[in-house]
Amino acid sequence: MGFLSVLGMAHRLAVERIAPGDAAVDATVGGGNDTVVLARAVGASGKVYGFDIQAEALDRARRKLAAEGEAVASRTELILADHARMADCLPDQVRGKLGAVMFNLGYLPHGDPAVITRPPSTLKALETAAAWLKPGGVVTIVVYPGHPGGREEAEAVETWCRSLPQDKFQVLLYRLLGHPDRPYLLAVEKKRRPG
Question: For residues 143 and 154, is the Cβ–Cβ distance under 8 A?
Fold first, then answer.
């Protein structure tokens, strides 16, 4: 038995911190895999908000959610917007109450590889995510340094993670050594008690 994949670990960390009835965010819907995981985890009374700048990504996610059944699909709201607009688009009642926010950076698989996430919008979205987490909540960030623009974004995200106050947040790095171009995971947990 090997280690969990980067995506598997991101899912595990998110699901472990979500309580039934929580709100959660898929900040980069892509193919909808993270959206489905979050929608299952929040339960019947929870809500998942998914962001993507490409209608094609949201269409893929809708199909995946429909295959899960109406009960799971009805827990999601898919939003055609840059994740940098998260604070403008999320309802105020979820501020400080998000159980998990998932980022899967890069580009849409089998989509246009020129349409990528970029540091300015990603960093703005990460600021919102960290501020809107509940105590004990987590932000998972899968970065892809192996594509054009990916290494710069990964470095920007790591710098942001290092800048977080250690009395309020802790950061996990999950990656295979010796594979600098492979995706890896950064996870940010909001401490239950500062200090």
Answer: yes
Q: Which two tokens stand for residue 190?
A: 């909001």
Distance (Å, rounded) from C-alpha 170 to C-alpha 28? 22
- In three-state secondary structure terms, 52 is strand
User: From the first residue on, what is the mean pLDDT of each consecutive set of 10 residues in the chain (195 residues)?
Assistant: 90 97 97 96 97 95 94 95 97 96 89 85 98 98 91 96 96 91 96 78
DSSP per residue, 93-136? GGTT-EEEEEEE-SB-TTS-TTSB--HHHHHHHHHHHHHHEEEE
pTM of full prediction above 0.85: yes
